[in-house]
Amino acid sequence: MNNKGLILKVSFVLSFIVLSIGINAQNLRIEGVGKDIGEKTVRLISVEDNLTGLEKEIARTKIEKDDSCFKFSLTISNTSLMKIRIESFDYIFVAQKGASYKMRILPFNFNVSDTLNTLFYKIPLPIIIESSTDNNLNGKIFSIDSTIDQYVLENNREILFFGNKKVIQVLKNMVNSLVDSNDSQYVKDYAYYSFEQIEYASKTKSDKKIKAELFFDKPILYDNIGYMNCFESVYGNYFTFGNKTFSDRILDRWLENNNYFSLIDSLGRDTLLKNEVFRELVFLRGMKEAYYSQIYEPYYIVKMIEKFISQTKFPQHKQIANNLLELFEEKSFSGGKSKEFSLKDINNNYITLDKYKGKKLIISFVKLNEPVCLRELEIMHGFVDTLSTNFNFLTITCDKSLDALYNFLVNSKVGVKYKWDFAHFDNKWDLLESYNVVVFPTFILIDEKGYIVQNPMRKPSEGSLIPFIPRK
């Protein structure tokens, strides 16, 4: 064999090895089929950790017009909560590392979003798992949740008001009967902590006793949503009114001075938080609680988390802390950087945020079939000429089709008078997620450099534009 032939043979062998490694590394496989999903985008969303709830799109596929199937093959590091997302509709399931899933989307009217705000009134995507290799993990979770929810609904006063131990014991027996020796440890732990969450709420035991039973010197089950939901119930409000070691005022001072060590040492004075690993988990949950409480300055909380990242020696906690920072930044809240986008107007021109740099920008997200949106556009129209020296205006229409925008601007007697920029959201549902658009209309004020000043901004009918009128 000549040298050229030898090189080709070696290259082929190496390529085969690399390809084989890549195939074997893909430890999660999802296949799905559904009616009327042609031309739709199917997104696979992963919840990065069960404390922050940070969502990341890890895969997407655009279905061909006449097709009805989708498929994902990828690598995940652990059993994770995931979502199949089409437009604003989600199917939530637990994806087991190393498992394969065959799913079916049941008949569903995606056009319901034309008449109902499905960003606010969440409608689940109707999917069933026809087969899987996860030992019926999701079926067991569904059975446990359904049993607990139905029983608590029927006996809520006996459980939550009177703490009836006999009634609670019946529920415990019911949950235990759903688990057998063939179930995975994940299912067993899920059942245990899901029930204990109800027992904690019933107050049949002292807080200290049940906290000790659940968490003291026990393994931290980061990936188990039953464990983390129970942890959330017990320690979700620990910083604001769940502890006796520091007050809101003291915490505010520690945050302002970036005094991480005083804060973490104070947590350690709680005898149930002697374990360093669990104490840090409570700290991380407390930072999320503090950030969203609107009591403390967000800047100081971010700096405290950055200080924590430089101090912790636990890689998983460092990742959770980084996820917290990403969670705070990824949504276009007030003070954050506005999310970039590229949308088309009715003339097929692309509109991006760069066009508006140098002036303040008011973005309005609307639906043209909603009277309240049309009323706000009409009111805003009365201010545009007066404010145009210092402000740009952009309206993003969120109707299904670009045709609705064309008809509004060209064929209607109302729309022809609106001379500022209009663009269609092009079914980019992730754009609405980034800007936290859940109701229509939503107004957002962005400064000259692209940073968000107000999100949401008050509507024009609420007088939001009056302070910006130049004084003569």
What descriptive keywords fit this protein?
472 residues; Immunoglobulin-like; single chain; alpha+beta; 4 domains
SSE diagram, text form:
Blueprint: H1 3-25, E1 28-34, E2 41-47, E3 55-62, E4 69-74, E5 80-86, E6 89-95, E7 100-105, E8 127-132, H2 137-154, H3 156-161, H4 165-177, H5 185-202, H6 207-215, H7 225-235, H8 238-241, H9 248-256, H10 260-268, H11 276-293, H12 298-311, H13 315-330, E9 342-344, E10 350-352, E11 360-366, H14 371-387, E12 391-397, H15 402-411, E13 421-424, H16 429-434, E14 442-446, E15 452-457
Parallel strand pairs: 1-7, 11-12, 12-13
Antiparallel strand pairs: 1-4, 2-3, 2-5, 5-6, 7-8, 9-10, 11-14, 14-15
Short description:
The protein is 43% helix and 19% strand. With 472 residues, it is of the alpha+beta class.
